[in-house]
Each structure stands twice: as structure tokens, then as C-alpha cells.
Amino acid sequence: MSHVIAAVSTGNQISAIGIIRLTGDGCAEIAGTVFTLNNGKHLQEAPERKLMLGALHDKDGRVIDSCCAVYSRGPHSYTGEDTVEFHCHGSPAVLAAGLEALYIAGAKPAGRGEFTKRAFLNGKLDLTQAEAVIDLIEADTADAAANAAGQVGGTLQRKLAPIYDDLTNLCSHFHAVLDYPDEDIEDFGLAAYEGALRSDAKALHTLLKTYGQGRILQQGVAAAIVGKPNVGKSSLLNALAGYERVIVTDIPGTTRDTVEETVMLGSTRLRLIDTAGIRETADTVEAIGVERSKKAIEEADLVIFVCDGSTGLTGEDEAIIDLCLEHENAIALINKSDLGSKIIPSDLPFIAVIHTCTKTGAGLDQLSDMVDAMFESEIPCDGSILTNARQYDAIRRAYEAMLSALQGLKLGLTPDAVLTDVEEAMEAMGEVTGATVREDITARIFERFCVGK
């Protein structure tokens, strides 16, 4: 028997509709003390998953809203328990008063992510699906939403389940032969499982390779804007952000630290990093900024080199270009095209070179198209892309344990030695789905959620 919890699921802002959610054994009885159906029946008699019109009351019994209630009986509900939702007008005052009345009637405040946690504990979701719920809530691109929705639907779980089943079959066969030697059980031989192990290891490796794309899908492309002082780096960030995010002056060295801003450029989410102009300097503070700029280049997914086309290339430009060319993804912008250009694209050893003017916006559409092309998704965003660092680490450990098992097979180790690695792989994979994950890790996962989800 689980106690009844309640929370507002739609936040505290004024909106057209606000939702109060309850779940737990006896939630309909508690909800019925603050809600009166227009048809005169008790809420416990309401039909399954059908919106029913009625009146919501506060703690003093006053009607505070004419709204709808929907009753979902367990196990056929999101949490697997009896669940009630009130769909009210979105006044924060109405929602707060309704919630207070529910607490007085016996409901307890829900913790962060407690509804989804109950869905996980009641077997309605595995941990990959539960984590995808918060990814879907936080998605800020259509691709990120589509991938999260696929994982909520079980795509990742379906990829892992056959692998886990293969490992389970291997282990169970070995232990059955070992524990029941007198039974008529087919003799255990590791060689019979080698093909399955290789195939499963390959499948995990393929999944692991999607994480680079998944990290970008989840966090955006880290794009470092680099160049010498006063070439228009901050102006570029401001132009892409659509407002004056960074102070821009004619004085070289205005930006002394990295400044970040997230923008949508075409269909790509960019985490723009405006860096201090890279040059030799005796100024201690500026020198620290220059070192941070160099570190930003190393850690970025994309480097955008900016030079001043009106003055021509200098030795400082050349030194920065050398740093940029060490990076896999680098674009060059010949800026200030409104002042004429002493630089032509062939002067710069970049695959992509664009003439731009941050004052007029010239060339920014071309930049957008170029970035979209560079980071276009190679894998369908249907839940097949691994975006979660915790899941990546567990799958990586499972993959390495399976490689160790295959190596043991090759060296002719005894079955019990090989199965130690197989069981280690199973343990790691269980962390992904929640089958073997520790309680403290589970608690930390659901702390990411908002109250009411």
C-alpha cells in the first residue's frame, strides 16, 4: 500500500490550464473530498480515464474553480497506481488552494520526480525510459525531443534486452550444469556462445559510438569564437544572440575572459564561447584570458576563426590559425566585409571560409547552413542515440567486460573465469535499465526532475 502524494504538475506561472496530480492507494477518496462531480456521483464512481466536469473546493469548502477531473485506476496508469488529475484554470492561487485542501484531506507533498519514480518502481518504466522523461521535458530542439520520445517509448531498452538475455542464458546454462550434474541438461560449452558474445559486443560498441552525437544533441555544439583582439568576435556573438550580450568597443582586449551564450543557428543549438583575443600581452588578467581561450579551442566541438578582412592577415592571425587547424571542425570568417577585404578565401587554409559583416548580418545565413551541414544527424533521432553520461559509462564497462570474456575464450581460460567477466557485464547493463542500480544512484537520478513529474 502506498501513501497518497499530490503536487501541481504545471508550474507556478499563470497559464490557460493548470494540473494538480495525485497518486497512491485511496487517492480518489481523498480527491473526492475536495471535488464534487456535476452528476452528483462520487469521484470513486467515475468511469476510467474520462474527463468529468465538477467543482473544486478549498479547505473551507468554497468553490474555487469549475474544472475537470480524470480518474485512472491502477495498474493502468502512468504510475501503476490509482491516479487522479484535476485540470483547472491556470491560476496559481486556485492551484495552491486546491493543493492545500488535498493536504488537509490526507495527501502528502510529492517529492521531486516522485510520480515517475513510482512508475519505475512499479515496473511501468525501466530506468532508461524514466531518465528519458526528464530529457524530453528539457529538450530544446525537435531532434532532442524526438530522440527522448523514442527512449521513453523503450527504444534503448529494446536494444539492450536481447544482449542481457544472451548473457543470462549463458550464465544460467553454466550454473544449471554445475548445480545439477545428475539432470539431463545439455553439456555446457563456451565455444557455443562465442558468436553471440561477439555479436553482442559489436552491438554495444555501435551504441557507444553514438554518444558523441548524443552529447551534442543533449548539450548543443560547443563553438569557440577565436581570433586576435578587435576583429569582431564579440560582435559576432551579439549578432547571433540577437542582443548585446557582450560589450563591444574599438579598444583591443575588451573581452578578458570567455563569455558563453546558447543560440539556435538554423537547426543547430550552439553554445557560443566568445574568447579573449589571442595575442602576446604583459597584462596579467588578459594573459589569463588568453590561456582560457586556448583551452576553449581544445575543448570545443567547433572552432570559428574570425579575422579582420579590412586589414589583412598578420603574424598573430597566423599563430591562431595554427591552433585552429589542430581541430577537426573549424570555420574561418573574413569579417568586416563592408570595409572591403584584403583577404581572399584562398589565403586561409580552412575547408570553409565565409565573408561576413556582423553589422549588417551579411554571411550569417551562409554560416548557419555550413554549421547545419557539419553537425547534421547521421543517425535517426528515434531513441537510438545514447545521450546520457551515466548510461554511457555503464555500457562502456559492460563492453569492456565482454571483450575481456572473449579474450578469455581465446586464451582457453576455464568457464568460471570467463563467466566472471560475463557477470560483470550483466551487472553494468543492469545499472542502465535499473535492474541492479544502487538506491542512492536512483535517488540522484530523480532529483533532476521537477515536483509534479
Task: Based on the model shown, name its key terms.
Rossmann fold; single chain; 3 domains; 13 strands; alpha/beta; Four Helix Bundle (Hemerythrin (Met), subunit A)
Topology:
Blueprint: E1 5-8, E2 15-23, H1 27-32, E3 35-37, E4 52-57, E5 63-72, E6 83-90, H2 92-105, E7 108-109, H3 114-121, H4 127-138, H5 142-152, H6 155-179, H7 191-208, H8 211-219, E8 221-226, H9 233-241, E9 259-265, E10 268-274, H10 284-299, E11 302-308, H11 315-324, E12 330-335, E13 352-355, H12 364-374, H13 389-411, H14 415-433, H15 439-446
Helix pairs in contact: 4-5, 6-7, 6-14, 7-13, 13-14
Radius of gyration, in Å, reads 29 Å
Distance between the termini: 21 Å
What CATH calls the topology of the largest domain is Rossmann fold
Stretches with pLDDT under 50, minimum 5 residues: 177-188, 247-256
Strand content: 15-25%
Number of strands: 13
State the secondary-structure class: alpha/beta
- Main sheet overview: 7 strands, mixed
CATH top level of the largest domain is Alpha Beta
What's the helix count?
15
Order of helices and strands: EEHEEEEHEHHHHHHEHEEHEHEEHHHH
Q: Would you tell me the overall average pLDDT?
A: 86
Shape annotation: flat
CATH architecture of the largest domain: 3-Layer(aba) Sandwich
Q: What name goes with the CATH superfamily of the largest domain?
A: P-loop containing nucleotide triphosphate hydrolases
Q: How many discrete domains?
A: 3
Helix content: 40-55%
As laid out across the biggest beta sheet, the strand order is 3-4-5-6-2-1-7
